[in-house]
Design goal:
Blueprint (H helix, E strand, L loop, with lengths): L2 H10 L2 E4 L2 E4 L11 H13 L7 E9 L9 E10 L3 E10 L2 E11 L28 H4 L4 H8 L4 E5 L14 E8 L7 H11 L21 E12 L9 E11 L2 E10 L4 E13 L4
Antiparallel strand pairs: 1-2, 2-4, 3-6, 3-9, 4-5, 5-6, 7-8, 8-10, 9-12, 10-11, 11-12
Length: 288
């Protein structure tokens, strides 16, 4: 397996300390705190480790309470809220240095047949005709703090193709919409829970920054403070993150120093496989 993916899969695997108690390592990828996708993926691993009977996750709702420390492990405590005939429900609390930094509720369901409908996939250029996303140009990277540079320079387990290019040098106000193709950099085993955990991990990229587009701002600008408050996902259909997925994002509102963004995730064949929503702190710096 590609080493970048192998490292990510190892990061999402947890050590079981006791019944309902797990520990995960942290990874410093250059974000200001533990990357939110890491905590989402690890919490989903902890919850899934306590669920059996063929149930797989179909939704999760999470809150980020405190900044995670990249240099310390995270302990995950799972509450087995429900084990029903078709559904199971779990609540996960993530703890560092004796304090809660995150909590999540996730629901799992046995596969069933039912009514079917979905919204249409937007018409966008296919990924093969778009350039590979490589982050900011060298002259912008050179101006960033060392941690921010590391975020873009470390080998990534996913590749991205942007439908709308990002202008890091002269960002302009634009409609709060963005589409990005994404996929894992190499093939993965056909394990549905694995692919959903990895989609939860990668769903934290780009989403909240969509709320900055109407204001000509971004997470790299010194004039804004950004942090995720909550994150929710719904998994509608089977998916593979090692095939191209279209992340179709929009931000319908920003107010009260908070930005809200939501997204649809489409497989390349047009199936709507997941949805996501995120609200985060977007606070202009008073000293900027």
């Amino acid at each position: 397996m590609d080493q970048r993916l192998a490292d990510l899969l190892k990061l999402l695997e947890l050590e079981q300390l006791e019944v309902n108690l797990f520990r995960g390592e942290s990874r410093d990828i250059g974000s200001p705190q533990v990357f939110g996708g890491q905590v989402l993926g690890q919490a989903l691993s902890a919850a899934g480790a306590t669920v059996d009977g063929g149930r797989i996750v179909h939704s999760l709702h999470a809150y980020f309470l405190r900044r995670g420390d990249c240099n310390a492990p995270i302990v995950y405590e799972v509450d087995r809220s429900l084990d029903g005939h078709s559904f199971a429900n779990r609540r996960v609390v993530a703890i560092q240095h004796g304090a809660q930094i995150f909590n999540m509720t996730a629901s799992f369901q046995i596969a069933e047949e039912g009514f079917e409908h979905q919204s249409d996939m937007p018409k966008v250029p296919p990924p093969d005709g778009l350039p590979k996303f490589t982050g900011p140009p060298p002259q912008i990277l050179a101006q960033l703090p060392e941690r921010a540079r590391r975020f873009f320079e470390l080998p990534a387990p996913f590749e991205f193709r942007l439908v709308q290019p990002i202008d890091y040098e002269r960002p302009q106000r634009s409609p709060p919409q963005r589409q990005i193709w994404l996929r894992a950099v190499a093939a993965l085993p056909p394990d549905e829970m694995l692919h959903r955990r990895l989609l939860a991990y990668v769903s934290d990229f780009f989403l909240l920054d969509t709320a900055n587009l109407p204001h000509g701002m971004s997470a790299l600008r010194p004039g804004v403070i950004m942090a995720t408050i909550d994150h929710a996902m719904w998994f509608h259909r089977t998916l593979r993150v090692d095939d191209w997925l279209l992340y179709d994002m929009e931000s319908p509102s920003a107010s009260g120093a908070r930005g809200f963004a939501r997204a649809r995730v489409f497989a390349s064949d047009g199936r709507l496989v997941a949805s996501a929503a995120q609200e985060g702190l977007i606070r202009p710096r008073k000293d900027a």
